[in-house]
Write a structure and sequence with these properties.
This protein is mainly α. It contains 7 helices and no strands.
Length: 121
């Protein structure tokens, strides 16, 4: 497990593929069945001009932070329209142990890795 985390951490984000399939899996795993269609609508409306890699990364972060709450997802995506970096940092990084050290969150990396099939790892 620790080796897998370090492998992901060293590849993050340039060596990791973010895509709409992962976003769909995240929505399915996070939202109640009767809310998934609305969550997908919100995701589909987010920054359609962006490249898929970056757009999917932000969507994954927003879905994770929403904790299955549609109102929160909508607010996060609105905030991401202004500055997506706040969403990425909040979702992906652990609380800093010092002002100069940022470390990817083990919890987020495990969640992300769980969205991928063995062939995608």
């Amino acid at each position: 497990m620790a080796d897998r985390l370090e492998q992901l951490r060293s590849a993050w984000p340039g060596g990791v593929e973010f895509n709409s399939t992962l976003v769909d899996r995240a929505i399915t795993g996070t939202f109640a069945p009767d809310e998934r269609a609305r969550a997908r609508e919100l995701a589909d409306g987010y920054d359609t001009s962006a490249k898929e890699q970056g757009r999917s990364r932000v969507l994954l972060a927003a879905v994770r932070l929403s904790s299955g709450n549609l109102v929160r997802l909508e607010a996060l995506l609105r905030a991401a329209e202004s500055d997506f970096r706040d969403i990425l940092v909040s979702a992906e990084y652990a609380a800093p142990t010092s002002p100069l050290v940022a470390r990817l969150s083990d919890e987020f990396l495990l969640w992300f890795d769980g969205l991928r099939t063995p062939d995608e790892r």
